[in-house]
Amino acid sequence: MIIKMKKGSSKNQYKKVVDFLESKGLEIKDVSSEQVTIFGIIGDTTQIEPFDLYAFEGVGDVTRVSTPFKKASRSFHPKDTIIELPNGLKIGGDHFTLMAGPCSVESEAQLRTIAKAVSKTGTKILRGGAYKPRTSPYSFQGMGLDGLKLLRKVADEFGMLVVSEMMTPNLLHEFNQYVDIIQIGARNMQNFDLLKMLGKTDKPILLKRGLSSTIEEWLMSAEYIMASGNDQIILCERGIRTFENYTRNTLDISSVLAVKELSHLPVIVDPSHAAGRWEMIENLSLAALAVGSHGLIVEVHHDPEHALSDGAQSLKPKKYENMVKKLQNIAAVTGKDVQ
Ligand code: PEP
Ligand code: MN
Fold first, then answer.
1. Does residue 30 form part of some domain?
2. Closest Cα to atom 4 of ligand 1
3. What atom in ligand 1 is closest to the CA of residue 103?
4. Is 77 inside a domain boundary?
5. Residue 310 CA: which ligand 1 atom is closest?
6. CA gap 52, 291 in Å, rounded
7. 134 CB neighbour count, 10 Å cutoff
């Protein structure tokens, strides 16, 4: 971190800020000239919030030069993290992992029909929401615990794993029991009590990017989970809110590259919530593979016209199957393994 004092600031103002930083165990490297008073701070600056330093009179500019996250940072952990799942499946590195299923679990028959279809393509992770974060309190809220139990039952029938969204820390016990990957949704990316609680599970966490979150905020949320003791995190780019409303959100495909540069954690793409339109899912998925993401989470429904949530962005099974074939053909050329 670099601090430039305001023109005309006093020696006393300089001393106050330097004393404060030194009291935190940080070292000061002064590089002032006759024209400008400027110094660098050396040491663990993660404990300092740059903006707070403007509380000191005389402080002009504060510039961060290192990332505020540590455990999630590639500079502290250069090698890619590869997450190993209970059935031997891996997420990260050269693996391209598919997760697919309905937005919401609606019934046993619905879930089985979709699980059967996606498992036929080689997809080994079944997605499905049992607790749904809906914008309207009058929309379908999910089947709750019955939905989680159905996910477990149906996934087991097809030798699949389960990923499902948890919205409250109170349900950690149930999620530990029925789910293999705990999804933290976009709306809860900064629910810090929820994030801290995830240190109490050894299940991998699928951490979606918040609706309007910067890449740094997203990685800081990963840092929360890691600081609480769980380093099994899969990041998920699911589109962000912009001025554009032709699509539901704007898929920030470049965030995949940024995250791979900044962090060692695997990052997958959710084209469904990004686009909000089924016609776009295949091409966005191919783009996700091309840009180097580690997989996809895709909504699939056999009867999207009557789905209880997100039918417009759900692929019919045949379309999903065709898409997986294309992904496999392209991945074969790039040396990635679609699983
Ligand atoms: C979902 O996966 O169904 C979901 C609600 O996603 P997001 O949190 O990205 O909106
Ligand atoms: Mn959905």
1. yes
2. 185
3. 3
4. no
5. 3
6. 37
7. 15
Gap from CA of 310 to ligand 2 centroid (Å): 5
Is the minimum distance from the CB of 294 to ligand 1 under 6 angstroms?
A: no
C-beta 208 within 6 A of ligand 1: yes
Q: Which residues contact 269 (CB under 8 A, 6 or more apart)?
A: 236, 237, 238, 251, 253, 256, 284, 285, 288, 293, 295, 296, 297
As given in the structure block, the two tokens for residue 68 are: 């505020």
- 74 belongs to a structural domain: no
pTM over 0.90: yes
* pLDDT digits 0-9 by tens, 286-332: 999 999 999 999 999 999 999 999 999 999 999 999 999 999 999 99
Task: Report d(CA 242, CA 251) in Å as an integer.
Answer: 10
- Name the amino acid, one letter, at 182: I
User: Which residue of 183, 205, 235 sits with most ligand 1 atoms within 8 Å of its CB, as the best mutation to test the pocket?
Assistant: 183
Question: Per-residue DSSP letters for 262-294?
Answer: HBSS-EEE-HHHHH--GGGHHHHHHHHHHHT-S
Number of domains in the chain: 2
Domain that includes residue 185, residue range = 83-338
Q: 273 CB under 6 A from ligand 1?
A: yes
C-beta atoms surrounding 131 within 10 Å: 22
Q: Are 40 and 115 in a shared domain?
A: no
Q: Residue with the nearest Cα to atom 9 of ligand 1?
A: 186
68 located within any domain: no
